[in-house]
Write a structure and sequence with these properties.
The chain is α/β, with parallel strands linked by helices. The chain has a single domain, classed as 3-Layer(aba) Sandwich (Rossmann fold), CATH 3.40.50.720. It contains 8 helices and 7 strands. Helix 1 crosses helix 8. The longest helix is centred in the middle third of the chain and has 29 residues. The relative contact order is 0.14. The mean pLDDT is about 95.
């Protein structure tokens, strides 16, 4: 099915992980994809992968923590494709795994700048084009840490909680302009990133890697982690007309890790 035929979708943090998978799923569904991230090598690798599968893709090196980069991202997308239909705010970093008293102001601020302010700036950059067309979809990728506090990860959890509030706020601000805003909270997702998170958490807590990993899995109703593709398929639902009456909502994709 071509649920996103002729749509133009920007995906921040699109070079690897969840962002890469969303790019692949959107391209397979007919979208023209714009990948934005800081790592040019990873962006180009994913761009080539999408192109090899017959998709149309533009890669733009972008630091979402810089307003000028976000504005350039939107401008280059409009120059190439003439429209912006979808923005997926996926860019984010894990940050330090430390007690608050051991964390530096710089470590706090880096996470807030990228994970939260970057979401705000990327959205700010695309809204005028969406408003002009009286249509658009914004999808924020939050986290289970946006639903439940996460010891040793204060700035990450704070940013992800705030993304849920931004989702509701923007849905209220822009609904009359035909712009829908929804949010996804992935739980632990299989891949390199969760391995880094588990390793850092094990070190901070002074326990073994396997103990932390078991804790993540055992708390999930399905007794497993989710996959990047499972998150991407929910992003596709929010982006497509199947969810045309849905806005301001946050959906957990976590194999039953958090049920609320």
């Amino acid at each position: 099915m071509q649920e996103l035929a002729d749509k133009v979708a920007i995906i921040t943090g699109g070079g690897y992980g969840i962002g890469r998978e969303i790019g692949l799923v959107f391209a397979r569904s007919g979208a023209r994809v714009v990948l934005a991230a800081r790592s040019a090598d990873k962006l180009e690798s994913t761009r080539r992968e999408i192109a090899a599968r017959g998709g149309e893709c533009l890669a733009i090196t972008t630091d979402v923590a810089k307003l000028a980069d976000c504005e350039r991202m939107a401008a280059q997308t409009l120059e190439r494709f003439g429209r912006i239909d979808i923005l997926v705010n996926n860019a984010g970093i894990e940050g330090a795994t430390k007690l608050t008293t051991d964390m530096t102001p710089q470590e706090w601020q880096e996470v807030i700048d990228i994970d939260l302010t970057g979401t705000w700036m990327a959205t700010r950059a695309v809204l005028p084009a969406m408003k002009q067309r009286q249509a658009g979809v914004i999808i924020n990728i939050s986290s289970g840490s946006g639903r439940r506090g996460y010891p040793f990860r204060a700035p990450y959890s704070a940013a992800k909680w705030a993304m849920i509030s931004l989702t509701q706020t923007w849905a209220g601000e822009w609904g009359r302009s035909g712009i829908r805003v929804n949010c996804i909270c992935p739980g632990p997702v299989q891949g390199d990133r969760i391995r880094r998170v588990i390793g850092a958490r094990a070190q901070a807590m002074g326990v073994g890697y396997e103990q932390v990993e078991r804790g993540f899995v055992s708390q999930a109703a399905m007794q497993r982690m989710v996959t990047e593709e499972e998150v991407a398929k929910v992003a596709l639902f929010f982006a497509a007309d199947q969810s045309s009456g849905v806005t301001g909502q946050t959906l957990n994709v976590d194999a039953g890790f958090i049920m609320n």
